[in-house]
Amino acid sequence: MRRGGPAALAACLAGAFAVLAGPGPGSGPGSTAWGGRRPPRSYGHLEGDVRWRRLFSATRFFLRIDGSGGVEGTRWKERPGSIVEIRSVRVGVVAIRAVHTGFYLAMNKQGRLYGSKEFSPNCKFMERIEENGYNTYAALRWRHRGRPMFLSLNSKGRPQRGGKTRRQHLSTHFLPMLVS
To answer: Which ranges form a coiled coil (predicted)?
Structure first.
């Protein structure tokens, strides 16, 4: 049974488009002078921020970059190389450098972690605060089959290859602890 015709269909579509479009600019409470769109935010004050921390893994190891550029986990809090400088490169992107050895944490295309004397694109990590309060660090430059590759220490304190890591794995979760 058919009701209405082309005029009824046109009226129905016009009503649907009006609902999707929402109220016009300058109408209704909370309207803004720029037509309801939020102005771009400026986070320039966050760029170049430097924090000295110890990165404590959910697997109960402190991240350490030794004098030869090796990356490992250590249970000893006071071990040289466990204090890192987390420097903001831009919003959400950080570089991690061991204070005592001067090596930057880096990840290569295969997802292996290493220490680099020179700062390079391999040294940039996306920092994200997870729902449980821990931070995850994903390589900015490299992905494995479309997925991000994360900084990770396994249950023995050894770094895991980035291709085997996921955001949900506890081995990728780190707490940046204040240096006392």
So the answer is: none
Contact by Cβ (8 Å): 115, 105: yes
Taking the C-alpha atoms of residue 170 and residue 124, their distance in angstroms, rounded to an integer, is 21
**Is residue 11's pLDDT more than 70?**
no
Structure tokens of 168?
């949900």
What average pLDDT does range 94-112 have in this prediction?
96
**Local structure of 147: helix, strand or coil:** strand
* Cα–Cα distance measured from residue 137 to residue 79, given in angstroms and rounded to the nearest whole number: 22
Least confident of 28-37, 55-64, 141-150, 151-160: 28-37
- For residues 112 and 162, what is the distance between their CA atoms, to the nearest angstrom? 7
The two tokens of residue 157 are 């304190």
pTM reported for the whole predicted model: 0.74
Task: Kindly report the number of other CB atoms within 10 A of residue 56's CB atom.
Answer: 20
Domains of the chain with CATH codes: 48-178 (2.80.10.50)
For residue 110, the number of C-alpha atoms closer than 13 Å in the C-beta half-sphere is 4
The rounded distance, in Å, linking the Cα atoms of 73 and 160 is: 11
Length of the chain: 180
Instruction: Tell me phi and psi for residue 150, to 5 degrees.
Output: -105, 150
48 phi-psi bin (left φ>0, alpha ψ -120 to 50, beta other): left
